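Phosphoinositide phospholipase C, pasting as requested.
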Amino acid sequence: MFKLRMAEPPPDIVNLFNEYSDKGVMTVEKLHQFLNDYQGEHHTIESAQDIFNSIKHHHVFLRRSLNLDAFFQYLSGDQNPALAHPRVVHQNMNEPLAHYFLYTGHNSYLTGNQLSSKSSIKPIIKALLSGVRVIELDLWPSKNNKNDIQVFHGGTMTSPVKLNKCLEAIRDNAFVASKYPVIITFEDHLTSDLQANMVSDIFGAMLYPGLESGVEFVAFPSPEQLKGKILISTKPPKNSLDSIIQQEHNDINQQEHNDELEDIAIKDNEEECEEEAAAPEYLHLIAIHAIKLKHGDDDGLKKLLNEHTQRVARLSMSEEKLKNAVKTHASDIVKFTQRNLLRVYPKGTRVFSSNYDPLIGWTHGAQMVAFNMQGYGKYLWIMQGMFRANGGCGYVRKPDFLLLSDEPFDPSSIGRPLKIILKIKLYMGYGWHLQFRRTSFDPFSPPDFFTKVAICGVPADIKKCKTRPIEDQWVPMWNQEFEFPLTAPELALLRIEVREHDLDGRHAFGGQTCLPVLELQSGIRAVPLYGKKGEKYDHIKLLMRFQLLPI
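C-alpha coordinates follow.
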Protein backbone atom coordinates (compact mmCIF):
# COMPACT_ATOMS: atom_id res chain seq x y z
CA MET A 1 0.00 0.00 0.00
CA PHE A 2 2.93 2.34 0.58
CA LYS A 3 4.19 1.98 -2.98
CA LEU A 4 4.55 5.49 -4.39
CA ARG A 5 2.71 6.31 -7.58
CA MET A 6 4.67 8.86 -9.60
CA ALA A 7 2.99 12.06 -10.73
CA GLU A 8 1.44 11.76 -14.16
CA PRO A 9 0.09 14.53 -16.38
CA PRO A 10 -3.66 15.12 -15.95
CA PRO A 11 -5.78 14.67 -19.10
CA ASP A 12 -5.99 18.47 -19.65
CA ILE A 13 -2.19 18.67 -19.78
CA VAL A 14 -2.00 15.79 -22.26
CA ASN A 15 -4.60 17.45 -24.48
CA LEU A 16 -2.80 20.79 -24.37
CA PHE A 17 0.48 19.15 -25.26
CA ASN A 18 -1.13 17.42 -28.21
CA GLU A 19 -2.63 20.73 -29.34
CA TYR A 20 0.70 22.58 -29.23
CA SER A 21 2.96 19.80 -30.46
CA ASP A 22 3.50 17.71 -33.57
CA LYS A 23 4.05 13.98 -33.45
CA GLY A 24 4.83 14.00 -29.73
CA VAL A 25 7.36 16.87 -29.69
CA MET A 26 6.99 20.59 -28.92
CA THR A 27 9.26 23.10 -30.64
CA VAL A 28 10.35 26.47 -29.27
CA GLU A 29 7.88 28.14 -31.60
CA LYS A 30 5.02 26.05 -30.27
CA LEU A 31 6.10 26.68 -26.67
CA HIS A 32 6.11 30.40 -27.45
CA GLN A 33 2.59 30.13 -28.86
CA PHE A 34 1.36 28.21 -25.80
CA LEU A 35 2.82 30.73 -23.34
CA ASN A 36 1.21 33.68 -25.09
CA ASP A 37 -2.09 32.23 -26.25
CA TYR A 38 -3.06 29.89 -23.42
CA GLN A 39 -1.11 31.16 -20.42
CA GLY A 40 -1.75 34.83 -21.24
CA GLU A 41 1.91 35.79 -20.87
CA HIS A 42 3.87 38.19 -23.06
CA HIS A 43 6.96 36.41 -24.33
CA THR A 44 9.27 37.07 -27.22
CA ILE A 45 10.68 34.12 -29.10
CA GLU A 46 13.96 34.82 -27.29
CA SER A 47 12.44 34.62 -23.80
CA ALA A 48 10.60 31.44 -24.81
CA GLN A 49 13.96 30.07 -25.93
CA ASP A 50 15.40 30.86 -22.49
CA ILE A 51 12.61 28.85 -20.85
CA PHE A 52 13.14 26.05 -23.35
CA ASN A 53 16.86 25.95 -22.57
CA SER A 54 16.26 25.93 -18.81
CA ILE A 55 14.14 22.78 -19.04
CA LYS A 56 17.30 20.82 -19.78
CA HIS A 57 17.82 20.67 -16.01
CA HIS A 58 14.94 18.21 -15.87
CA HIS A 59 17.04 15.76 -17.96
CA VAL A 60 13.96 14.87 -19.99
CA PHE A 61 14.32 16.89 -23.17
CA LEU A 62 15.08 16.32 -26.78
CA ARG A 63 17.74 18.38 -28.44
CA ARG A 64 15.41 20.61 -30.45
CA SER A 65 12.04 19.99 -28.83
CA LEU A 66 10.20 19.01 -25.64
CA ASN A 67 8.38 15.79 -24.96
CA LEU A 68 5.30 15.44 -22.76
CA ASP A 69 7.28 14.73 -19.57
CA ALA A 70 9.42 17.85 -20.03
CA PHE A 71 6.34 19.99 -20.71
CA PHE A 72 4.59 18.59 -17.62
CA GLN A 73 7.62 19.14 -15.40
CA TYR A 74 7.90 22.73 -16.59
CA LEU A 75 4.27 23.39 -15.69
CA SER A 76 4.78 21.74 -12.29
CA GLY A 77 7.96 23.64 -11.42
CA ASP A 78 9.15 26.92 -9.94
CA GLN A 79 9.41 28.60 -13.35
CA ASN A 80 5.63 28.61 -13.66
CA PRO A 81 4.45 30.65 -10.61
CA ALA A 82 0.85 31.47 -9.77
CA LEU A 83 1.53 35.16 -9.10
CA ALA A 84 2.15 37.48 -12.03
CA HIS A 85 4.83 39.58 -10.29
CA PRO A 86 6.24 37.41 -7.48
CA ARG A 87 9.30 39.60 -6.82
CA VAL A 88 8.58 42.82 -8.72
CA VAL A 89 7.16 46.03 -7.22
CA HIS A 90 4.64 47.01 -9.91
CA GLN A 91 2.17 49.35 -8.19
CA ASN A 92 2.41 53.15 -8.17
CA MET A 93 4.53 54.00 -5.11
CA ASN A 94 4.35 57.79 -5.48
CA GLU A 95 1.11 58.44 -3.61
CA PRO A 96 0.80 59.51 0.07
CA LEU A 97 1.52 56.86 2.67
CA ALA A 98 -2.17 56.79 3.65
CA HIS A 99 -3.00 55.24 0.25
CA TYR A 100 -1.33 51.92 1.13
CA PHE A 101 -1.84 48.93 3.38
CA LEU A 102 1.32 48.39 5.46
CA TYR A 103 2.61 45.03 6.70
CA THR A 104 2.35 45.69 10.45
CA GLY A 105 3.53 43.84 13.54
CA HIS A 106 2.22 44.00 17.12
CA ASN A 107 4.53 43.71 20.14
CA SER A 108 7.24 42.84 17.64
CA TYR A 109 9.80 41.89 20.30
CA LEU A 110 7.88 38.98 21.89
CA THR A 111 8.90 35.41 21.13
CA GLY A 112 5.67 33.79 22.32
CA ASN A 113 2.61 34.62 24.44
CA GLN A 114 1.73 38.10 25.71
CA LEU A 115 2.12 37.34 29.42
CA SER A 116 5.30 35.42 30.13
CA SER A 117 7.37 34.95 26.97
CA LYS A 118 10.85 36.26 26.38
CA SER A 119 11.55 39.61 24.71
CA SER A 120 14.23 39.36 22.05
CA ILE A 121 15.58 40.92 18.87
CA LYS A 122 15.07 37.62 16.99
CA PRO A 123 11.34 38.10 16.21
CA ILE A 124 12.10 41.68 15.10
CA ILE A 125 14.72 40.45 12.66
CA LYS A 126 12.49 37.62 11.43
CA ALA A 127 9.61 40.03 10.83
CA LEU A 128 11.76 42.48 8.88
CA LEU A 129 13.24 39.73 6.74
CA SER A 130 9.74 38.53 5.90
CA GLY A 131 8.79 42.01 4.67
CA VAL A 132 7.09 43.54 7.74
CA ARG A 133 7.37 47.35 7.56
CA VAL A 134 5.89 48.49 10.90
CA ILE A 135 7.56 47.42 14.14
CA GLU A 136 6.11 48.11 17.60
CA LEU A 137 8.31 48.63 20.67
CA ASP A 138 7.12 49.26 24.25
CA LEU A 139 9.65 51.51 26.03
CA TRP A 140 10.13 51.39 29.81
CA PRO A 141 12.81 52.70 32.17
CA SER A 142 15.06 49.99 33.56
CA LYS A 143 14.39 48.97 37.16
CA ASN A 144 18.09 48.37 37.77
CA ASN A 145 19.62 51.32 35.92
CA LYS A 146 17.67 54.55 35.74
CA ASN A 147 19.65 55.65 32.67
CA ASP A 148 18.82 52.50 30.73
CA ILE A 149 15.80 51.85 28.50
CA GLN A 150 14.18 48.44 28.17
CA VAL A 151 11.61 46.94 25.83
CA PHE A 152 8.98 44.58 27.25
CA HIS A 153 5.20 44.17 27.62
CA GLY A 154 4.29 46.25 30.65
CA GLY A 155 2.23 44.78 33.47
CA THR A 156 3.22 41.21 32.57
CA MET A 157 5.98 38.73 33.32
CA THR A 158 7.65 39.10 29.92
CA SER A 159 11.42 39.47 30.18
CA PRO A 160 13.04 42.69 28.87
CA VAL A 161 15.46 43.36 26.05
CA LYS A 162 17.52 46.55 25.76
CA LEU A 163 16.24 49.25 23.43
CA ASN A 164 19.60 49.82 21.77
CA LYS A 165 19.74 46.13 20.78
CA CYS A 166 16.30 46.42 19.17
CA LEU A 167 17.21 49.60 17.30
CA GLU A 168 20.47 48.11 16.05
CA ALA A 169 18.61 45.01 14.84
CA ILE A 170 16.16 47.24 12.95
CA ARG A 171 18.97 49.32 11.46
CA ASP A 172 20.84 46.23 10.22
CA ASN A 173 17.82 44.40 8.78
CA ALA A 174 15.33 47.11 7.80
CA PHE A 175 16.03 47.12 4.08
CA VAL A 176 17.11 43.56 3.30
CA ALA A 177 13.69 42.31 2.14
CA SER A 178 12.37 45.68 0.93
CA LYS A 179 13.79 49.13 0.28
CA TYR A 180 10.57 50.84 1.29
CA PRO A 181 10.31 52.68 4.63
CA VAL A 182 10.16 51.08 8.06
CA ILE A 183 7.96 52.72 10.69
CA ILE A 184 8.62 52.16 14.39
CA THR A 185 5.63 52.77 16.65
CA PHE A 186 6.81 53.58 20.17
CA GLU A 187 4.53 52.94 23.09
CA ASP A 188 6.50 55.27 25.27
CA HIS A 189 6.36 54.89 29.06
CA LEU A 190 9.50 56.89 29.87
CA THR A 191 9.93 59.80 32.26
CA SER A 192 10.64 63.23 30.83
CA ASP A 193 14.36 63.06 31.61
CA LEU A 194 14.79 59.59 30.12
CA GLN A 195 14.00 59.71 26.41
CA ALA A 196 15.12 57.55 23.52
CA ASN A 197 17.96 59.90 22.64
CA MET A 198 19.90 56.97 21.24
CA VAL A 199 17.51 56.83 18.26
CA SER A 200 19.29 59.49 16.21
CA ASP A 201 22.74 58.11 17.15
CA ILE A 202 21.91 54.58 15.97
CA PHE A 203 19.94 55.43 12.82
CA GLY A 204 21.84 58.53 11.72
CA ALA A 205 20.94 59.55 8.15
CA MET A 206 18.46 56.65 7.88
CA LEU A 207 16.10 58.49 10.25
CA TYR A 208 13.40 60.58 8.61
CA PRO A 209 13.14 63.70 10.79
CA GLY A 210 9.96 65.03 12.30
CA LEU A 211 8.73 68.50 11.45
CA GLU A 212 9.52 71.63 13.41
CA SER A 213 7.48 72.45 16.49
CA GLY A 214 3.97 73.58 15.59
CA VAL A 215 4.23 72.21 12.05
CA GLU A 216 2.51 69.02 10.95
CA PHE A 217 2.10 67.05 7.73
CA VAL A 218 -0.80 68.12 5.53
CA ALA A 219 -0.21 64.93 3.53
CA PHE A 220 2.17 62.09 4.23
CA PRO A 221 5.14 61.60 1.88
CA SER A 222 5.04 58.65 -0.52
CA PRO A 223 6.77 55.28 -0.02
CA GLU A 224 9.00 56.16 -2.97
CA GLN A 225 10.10 59.42 -1.32
CA LEU A 226 10.75 57.54 1.92
CA LYS A 227 12.79 54.71 0.43
CA GLY A 228 15.57 53.63 2.78
CA LYS A 229 14.19 55.74 5.65
CA ILE A 230 13.10 54.85 9.18
CA LEU A 231 10.22 56.82 10.69
CA ILE A 232 9.26 57.15 14.35
CA SER A 233 5.58 57.29 15.27
CA THR A 234 4.38 58.06 18.78
CA LYS A 235 2.41 60.61 20.79
CA PRO A 236 4.19 63.98 20.53
CA PRO A 237 5.21 65.89 23.66
CA LYS A 238 2.90 68.59 24.98
CA ASN A 239 3.96 72.23 25.02
CA SER A 240 3.70 72.57 28.77
CA LEU A 241 5.94 72.68 31.80
CA ASP A 242 7.86 69.52 32.45
CA SER A 243 6.41 69.14 35.91
CA ILE A 244 2.86 69.28 34.60
CA ILE A 245 3.69 66.78 31.89
CA GLN A 246 5.26 64.49 34.44
CA GLN A 247 2.14 64.60 36.59
CA GLU A 248 -0.05 63.75 33.59
CA HIS A 249 2.28 60.86 32.83
CA ASN A 250 1.98 59.54 36.37
CA ASP A 251 -1.82 59.82 36.21
CA ILE A 252 -1.89 57.81 32.99
CA ASN A 253 0.38 55.11 34.39
CA GLN A 254 -1.73 54.88 37.56
CA GLN A 255 -4.94 54.56 35.52
CA GLU A 256 -3.36 51.83 33.39
CA HIS A 257 -2.25 50.01 36.51
CA ASN A 258 -5.83 50.14 37.85
CA ASP A 259 -7.14 48.79 34.57
CA GLU A 260 -4.70 45.89 34.74
CA LEU A 261 -5.94 44.97 38.21
CA GLU A 262 -9.54 45.04 37.02
CA ASP A 263 -9.14 43.11 33.78
CA ILE A 264 -6.36 41.19 32.09
CA ALA A 265 -7.50 42.77 28.80
CA ILE A 266 -5.27 45.73 29.68
CA LYS A 267 -3.76 46.32 26.29
CA ASP A 268 -6.80 48.14 24.88
CA ASN A 269 -6.40 51.11 27.22
CA GLU A 270 -2.65 50.93 27.41
CA GLU A 271 -2.12 51.29 23.67
CA GLU A 272 -4.40 54.31 23.45
CA CYS A 273 -2.57 56.03 26.30
CA GLU A 274 0.74 56.37 24.50
CA GLU A 275 3.30 58.42 26.37
CA GLU A 276 2.69 62.15 26.49
CA ALA A 277 5.67 63.02 28.69
CA ALA A 278 8.45 63.43 26.18
CA ALA A 279 11.28 65.88 26.44
CA PRO A 280 10.85 68.85 24.05
CA GLU A 281 13.91 67.91 22.01
CA TYR A 282 12.29 64.54 21.31
CA LEU A 283 9.73 66.20 19.05
CA HIS A 284 12.04 66.42 16.04
CA LEU A 285 12.38 62.61 16.04
CA ILE A 286 8.65 61.99 15.62
CA ALA A 287 7.76 61.81 11.93
CA ILE A 288 4.19 60.50 12.38
CA HIS A 289 2.20 61.92 15.27
CA ALA A 290 -0.16 59.59 17.10
CA ILE A 291 -3.58 60.82 18.24
CA LYS A 292 -4.82 59.92 21.69
CA LEU A 293 -8.47 58.86 21.99
CA LYS A 294 -9.90 58.26 25.44
CA HIS A 295 -11.17 54.78 26.19
CA GLY A 296 -14.90 54.45 25.44
CA ASP A 297 -15.15 58.02 24.09
CA ASP A 298 -17.62 57.49 21.23
CA ASP A 299 -18.41 61.19 20.92
CA GLY A 300 -14.72 61.97 20.73
CA LEU A 301 -14.30 59.36 18.00
CA LYS A 302 -17.14 60.84 15.96
CA LYS A 303 -15.72 64.35 16.35
CA LEU A 304 -12.24 63.18 15.41
CA LEU A 305 -13.42 61.29 12.33
CA ASN A 306 -15.34 64.32 11.07
CA GLU A 307 -12.75 66.91 12.01
CA HIS A 308 -11.95 69.20 9.09
CA THR A 309 -8.26 69.88 9.55
CA GLN A 310 -5.27 70.10 7.29
CA ARG A 311 -2.98 68.06 9.52
CA VAL A 312 -2.66 64.26 9.21
CA ALA A 313 -1.76 61.80 11.95
CA ARG A 314 -2.12 58.21 13.17
CA LEU A 315 -4.99 56.89 15.26
CA SER A 316 -4.88 53.54 17.08
CA MET A 317 -7.84 51.45 18.19
CA SER A 318 -8.36 47.85 19.25
CA GLU A 319 -10.05 45.28 17.04
CA GLU A 320 -13.07 45.37 19.36
CA LYS A 321 -13.37 49.14 19.22
CA LEU A 322 -13.14 49.05 15.41
CA LYS A 323 -15.86 46.37 15.19
CA ASN A 324 -18.14 48.55 17.30
CA ALA A 325 -17.20 51.77 15.53
CA VAL A 326 -17.98 50.48 12.02
CA LYS A 327 -21.56 49.72 13.07
CA THR A 328 -22.29 53.46 13.22
CA HIS A 329 -19.27 55.22 11.69
CA ALA A 330 -18.22 53.00 8.76
CA SER A 331 -18.27 55.75 6.14
CA ASP A 332 -16.54 58.22 8.47
CA ILE A 333 -13.74 55.72 9.13
CA VAL A 334 -13.21 55.12 5.41
CA LYS A 335 -13.04 58.90 4.81
CA PHE A 336 -10.65 59.35 7.75
CA THR A 337 -8.25 56.75 6.32
CA GLN A 338 -8.12 58.50 2.96
CA ARG A 339 -5.65 61.01 4.48
CA ASN A 340 -4.80 59.70 7.95
CA LEU A 341 -3.33 56.43 9.20
CA LEU A 342 -5.44 54.01 11.23
CA ARG A 343 -3.72 51.31 13.25
CA VAL A 344 -5.75 48.36 14.58
CA TYR A 345 -4.29 46.07 17.23
CA PRO A 346 -5.36 42.78 18.88
CA LYS A 347 -7.58 42.89 21.94
CA GLY A 348 -5.90 42.33 25.28
CA THR A 349 -7.42 38.89 25.87
CA ARG A 350 -5.33 37.40 23.03
CA VAL A 351 -2.74 36.34 25.58
CA PHE A 352 -1.55 33.41 23.46
CA SER A 353 -0.68 35.73 20.54
CA SER A 354 -3.64 34.73 18.41
CA ASN A 355 -4.94 37.10 15.73
CA TYR A 356 -8.20 38.44 14.33
CA ASP A 357 -9.75 38.78 10.87
CA PRO A 358 -7.68 41.50 9.12
CA LEU A 359 -10.46 42.17 6.58
CA ILE A 360 -12.40 44.16 9.20
CA GLY A 361 -9.57 46.70 9.03
CA TRP A 362 -8.66 46.53 5.34
CA THR A 363 -12.26 46.83 4.08
CA HIS A 364 -12.58 50.08 6.05
CA GLY A 365 -9.28 51.50 4.84
CA ALA A 366 -7.10 50.78 7.91
CA GLN A 367 -3.48 50.86 6.78
CA MET A 368 -1.82 49.31 9.85
CA VAL A 369 -3.61 46.09 10.81
CA ALA A 370 -1.19 45.00 13.55
CA PHE A 371 -0.62 41.26 13.99
CA ASN A 372 1.20 38.96 16.37
CA MET A 373 3.73 37.61 13.88
CA GLN A 374 4.97 34.96 16.33
CA GLY A 375 1.60 33.17 16.21
CA TYR A 376 0.02 31.14 13.44
CA GLY A 377 -3.39 30.25 12.09
CA LYS A 378 -5.67 31.18 9.22
CA TYR A 379 -5.74 34.91 9.96
CA LEU A 380 -1.96 35.14 9.89
CA TRP A 381 -2.00 33.16 6.62
CA ILE A 382 -4.43 35.74 5.20
CA MET A 383 -2.10 38.53 6.32
CA GLN A 384 0.86 36.82 4.66
CA GLY A 385 -1.23 36.33 1.53
CA MET A 386 -2.14 40.01 1.24
CA PHE A 387 1.50 41.04 1.39
CA ARG A 388 2.61 38.60 -1.28
CA ALA A 389 1.16 41.27 -3.55
CA ASN A 390 3.26 44.04 -5.10
CA GLY A 391 6.46 42.02 -5.09
CA GLY A 392 6.32 41.36 -1.34
CA CYS A 393 7.64 44.87 -0.58
CA GLY A 394 5.37 45.31 2.47
CA TYR A 395 3.22 48.04 0.85
CA VAL A 396 0.04 47.30 -1.10
CA ARG A 397 -1.87 50.18 -2.67
CA LYS A 398 -5.46 50.44 -1.49
CA PRO A 399 -8.21 50.04 -4.11
CA ASP A 400 -9.49 53.22 -5.71
CA PHE A 401 -12.92 52.78 -4.11
CA LEU A 402 -11.33 53.24 -0.65
CA LEU A 403 -9.74 56.51 -1.77
CA LEU A 404 -12.79 58.22 -3.29
CA SER A 405 -13.96 61.00 -0.98
CA ASP A 406 -17.36 61.59 -2.62
CA GLU A 407 -18.87 58.15 -2.05
CA PRO A 408 -17.21 56.27 0.86
CA PHE A 409 -17.08 52.52 0.35
CA ASP A 410 -19.45 50.36 2.39
CA PRO A 411 -18.05 46.80 2.61
CA SER A 412 -21.29 45.44 4.08
CA SER A 413 -23.32 46.44 1.02
CA ILE A 414 -24.90 43.52 -0.81
CA GLY A 415 -26.06 45.47 -3.84
CA ARG A 416 -22.74 45.93 -5.64
CA PRO A 417 -22.51 44.51 -9.16
CA LEU A 418 -20.20 41.61 -9.96
CA LYS A 419 -16.84 42.60 -11.44
CA ILE A 420 -15.21 39.26 -12.26
CA ILE A 421 -15.69 35.52 -11.89
CA LEU A 422 -12.68 33.54 -10.70
CA LYS A 423 -12.72 30.01 -12.10
CA ILE A 424 -10.34 27.46 -10.61
CA LYS A 425 -9.53 23.89 -11.50
CA LEU A 426 -7.50 21.94 -8.96
CA TYR A 427 -5.76 19.13 -10.81
CA MET A 428 -3.42 17.49 -8.34
CA GLY A 429 -0.89 17.82 -5.54
CA TYR A 430 2.62 16.43 -5.20
CA GLY A 431 5.77 16.52 -3.08
CA TRP A 432 4.49 15.31 0.30
CA HIS A 433 6.56 12.12 0.12
CA LEU A 434 9.70 14.30 -0.09
CA GLN A 435 8.66 16.58 2.81
CA PHE A 436 7.18 14.09 5.29
CA ARG A 437 7.97 10.62 6.59
CA ARG A 438 5.91 7.77 5.12
CA THR A 439 4.04 7.35 8.43
CA SER A 440 3.51 11.08 9.18
CA PHE A 441 -0.20 11.08 8.33
CA ASP A 442 -1.27 7.46 8.76
CA PRO A 443 0.94 4.70 10.21
CA PHE A 444 -0.79 1.97 8.17
CA SER A 445 -1.54 3.49 4.76
CA PRO A 446 -0.79 6.43 2.46
CA PRO A 447 -2.64 9.69 3.20
CA ASP A 448 -6.18 10.63 2.15
CA PHE A 449 -5.73 14.27 1.11
CA PHE A 450 -8.52 16.78 0.48
CA THR A 451 -8.28 20.52 -0.18
CA LYS A 452 -10.32 23.44 1.16
CA VAL A 453 -10.62 26.40 -1.22
CA ALA A 454 -12.11 29.70 -0.03
CA ILE A 455 -12.38 33.38 -0.88
CA CYS A 456 -11.68 35.91 1.88
CA GLY A 457 -12.82 39.47 1.21
CA VAL A 458 -15.89 41.67 1.59
CA PRO A 459 -18.88 39.79 3.06
CA ALA A 460 -20.63 39.47 -0.31
CA ASP A 461 -17.63 37.64 -1.81
CA ILE A 462 -16.94 35.12 0.97
CA LYS A 463 -17.35 31.53 -0.19
CA LYS A 464 -15.94 28.16 0.92
CA CYS A 465 -15.57 24.92 -1.03
CA LYS A 466 -13.64 21.68 -0.67
CA THR A 467 -12.66 18.67 -2.74
CA ARG A 468 -13.46 15.08 -2.03
CA PRO A 469 -10.70 13.13 -0.22
CA ILE A 470 -8.51 10.95 -2.43
CA GLU A 471 -7.76 7.76 -0.55
CA ASP A 472 -4.33 6.20 -0.11
CA GLN A 473 -2.40 8.49 -2.46
CA TRP A 474 0.75 10.56 -1.96
CA VAL A 475 -0.01 12.19 -5.33
CA PRO A 476 -3.75 12.99 -5.16
CA MET A 477 -5.58 13.70 -8.42
CA TRP A 478 -8.72 15.75 -7.74
CA ASN A 479 -9.58 17.31 -11.13
CA GLN A 480 -12.30 19.45 -9.53
CA GLU A 481 -13.53 22.89 -10.60
CA PHE A 482 -14.74 25.82 -8.50
CA GLU A 483 -16.29 29.18 -9.35
CA PHE A 484 -16.19 32.39 -7.28
CA PRO A 485 -18.22 35.49 -8.33
CA LEU A 486 -16.52 38.62 -6.94
CA THR A 487 -17.85 42.13 -6.34
CA ALA A 488 -14.61 43.51 -4.85
CA PRO A 489 -11.76 41.44 -6.35
CA GLU A 490 -9.26 44.13 -5.29
CA LEU A 491 -9.72 42.97 -1.67
CA ALA A 492 -10.24 39.26 -2.40
CA LEU A 493 -7.73 36.61 -1.34
CA LEU A 494 -7.79 32.97 -2.38
CA ARG A 495 -7.11 30.74 0.62
CA ILE A 496 -6.08 27.12 0.02
CA GLU A 497 -5.54 24.51 2.73
CA VAL A 498 -4.76 20.81 2.32
CA ARG A 499 -5.78 18.35 5.03
CA GLU A 500 -5.46 14.60 5.48
CA HIS A 501 -8.90 13.13 6.06
CA ASP A 502 -9.45 11.29 9.31
CA LEU A 503 -12.65 9.59 10.43
CA ASP A 504 -12.43 11.17 13.88
CA GLY A 505 -12.58 14.65 12.33
CA ARG A 506 -9.07 15.66 13.40
CA HIS A 507 -7.82 16.18 9.88
CA ALA A 508 -4.02 16.51 9.86
CA PHE A 509 -2.47 19.62 8.33
CA GLY A 510 -0.89 19.15 4.90
CA GLY A 511 -0.03 22.69 3.80
CA GLN A 512 -1.62 26.04 2.99
CA THR A 513 -1.27 29.21 0.96
CA CYS A 514 -3.14 32.45 0.45
CA LEU A 515 -2.94 34.47 -2.77
CA PRO A 516 -4.22 37.94 -3.79
CA VAL A 517 -6.76 37.29 -6.53
CA LEU A 518 -5.85 40.14 -8.87
CA GLU A 519 -2.19 39.05 -8.88
CA LEU A 520 -3.01 35.56 -10.14
CA GLN A 521 -1.76 34.61 -13.58
CA SER A 522 -4.26 32.95 -15.84
CA GLY A 523 -3.53 29.49 -17.20
CA ILE A 524 -2.12 26.38 -15.56
CA ARG A 525 0.18 27.17 -12.63
CA ALA A 526 2.29 25.50 -9.94
CA VAL A 527 1.21 26.74 -6.50
CA PRO A 528 3.73 26.17 -3.66
CA LEU A 529 2.36 25.40 -0.20
CA TYR A 530 3.51 26.70 3.18
CA GLY A 531 3.64 25.35 6.71
CA LYS A 532 1.62 26.46 9.72
CA LYS A 533 3.98 29.32 10.56
CA GLY A 534 4.31 30.48 6.97
CA GLU A 535 7.53 28.69 6.08
CA LYS A 536 7.61 27.63 2.45
CA TYR A 537 7.78 23.90 1.83
CA ASP A 538 10.64 22.83 -0.39
CA HIS A 539 8.72 20.30 -2.46
CA ILE A 540 4.95 20.49 -1.96
CA LYS A 541 2.91 22.10 -4.73
CA LEU A 542 -0.54 22.04 -6.27
CA LEU A 543 -1.16 22.12 -10.00
CA MET A 544 -4.06 24.47 -10.72
CA ARG A 545 -5.72 26.39 -13.54
CA PHE A 546 -6.89 29.98 -13.03
CA GLN A 547 -9.30 32.01 -15.15
CA LEU A 548 -10.32 35.59 -14.29
CA LEU A 549 -13.36 36.39 -16.39
CA PRO A 550 -14.64 39.99 -16.43
CA ILE A 551 -18.40 40.48 -16.27
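Note for the archive: The mean pLDDT is 87.
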